[in-house]
Amino acid sequence: MSAVQDLPPKGGDIPEFQQIMGHPRPLWMLFMTEFWERFAFYGIRWALTLYIVTQFYGGEGSGQDPASKLYGAYLALVYAAAIFGGYIADKVLGYQRSILLGAVIMAAGLFMVSMPNQQIFTLGLATIISGNGLFKPNISTMVGKLYAVGDERRDSGFTIFYMGINLGAFIAPILTAALANHLMGGTVDAPAYKIVFITAGIGMLISLVWFWFGRVHLKGIGRPPGGDDSKGKVLYVLIGALLAIPVIYFLLSISAETLQWYVLTPMFVALCGLLLAEGIKEGAVSRDKTIAMLLIFVFNILFWMFFEQAGSSFTFLADEIVNRQFGSWTFPTGWFQSVNSIAIIVLAPIIAWIWVKMGTKNPSIPRKFGLGLIFNGFAFLLLMFALSSLLGADGKIPFWTLFMVYVIQSVGELCLSPIGLSMVTKLAPLRLVGFGMGGWFLSTGIGNNLSGIFAAMVSGETGMTTASAYAGYKMGFWILLIFGVLLFLIAPLIQKLMHGVK
After folding, report:
1. For a surface tag, which of 207, 391, 411, 434 has the fewest beta carbons within 10 Å of its beta carbon?
2. β-strands 325-326, 23-24: how paired?
3. Domain presence at residue 11
4. Total domain count for the chain?
5. Residue 358's domain is classified under what CATH number?
6. DSSP string of 383-452?
7. What are 291-328's pLDDT values in tens digits?
8. What is the pTM of this model?
9. Which residues contact residue 449 at a Cβ distance below 8 angstroms, ignoring those fewer than 6 apart?
């Protein structure tokens, strides 16, 4: 490949890519890079809260509250860090180098959490967060940069990319839970969590190597701004990322409520202000699109607040209040984490087909978001029914109920999440697309921190009971239903602000 081809495209031009299955060849490389990164991320998701309670709180139910809050704060900061990573890629380092540097840092953090020391464990989480901030928003932005703004394949490309996320998320819990149950003395009742974290670290190294060798096919897409290949900038960003780790450690150590009101909320307000100011600078149409995007961010927070119970309250529910026995075999708690992913893989083509068949009656982006909230609410309605009417003599609810909760939530996710990634690339101010993607992930992160606070409430001070679970999930149902219907009603106003973006 010539040196000219390696230069960043000028003026937003898209290079001529070889097409594979109707899409640019680099999409498939990004697909597999994201597959392995998500394998690493979701490989530890099912184990974190259970490990915290077992390793640092002696297995006592009282440990569920702090475990849920730390888990929520971890997820929140993973997504909040995306703001800085998106901005650094936009203005300083370029997308390719940001992804590579982030992958190295994340891998180090994943190996650190395997050490059975609470301080090192938390420091490992902080290291993962620092690296993920450089990785996550920028690989998603790279997908959008493979297509011209008016290219009708863009949404389809994001859907394919989203399948890579879910393939990694599907395989990881099955493999890591199986390894934890059978290696290093682990059993279903007492998994060897260390092997979970080590396996995830190896997955992250594979992601790093895959992108390192595959980036040649990008033909300059994602190179540093202005073609500035200075290695000094990489060193400066690395130093900044390392200095951020103790700061993140401190944020993980404070209460989730303090993190919410004094860190995440001010960050979100400031980000909205910066994006809106840039939108106003670009003109009335850009201003309106930015306002529409920010409104949807708010509803996105609510969706993830209740969706992201999977790694916290739903995990404790599965471990203690769901009948997982099939004869002499016990369904591993961690395997529930794969239900969402396999449901996404199976249902995504069906829902995409439904949207196409609806033609001109296809719901607008805001109404699809409203449907996402409502389906999420239906999942909580099923849990309410199970906890009030389906309890067995052993005090547990049937296996199928939690299984179907994940399936119903997956339908809601398909109405919202893949469309959200594409929406940001279409609505964000042109000069701050990466920053806008960071805003999407920050809104998701705020929802995740609130999910930890909500999960802690569901567990109570002494651990989850059927009564505490029912009360919490009932509240979740009504909040999701009310705001889902509200978004449905105001959708025409938001659609008008989007100026024809679909």
Report:
1. 391
2. unpaired
3. no
4. 1
5. 1.20.1250.20
6. HHHHHHH---TTS-B-HHHHHHHHHHHHHHHHHHHHHHHHHHHHHS-GGGHHHHHHHHHHHHHHHHHHHH
7. 999 999 999 999 999 999 999 999 999 999 999 999 88
8. 0.87
9. 72, 73, 75, 76, 256, 259, 260, 264
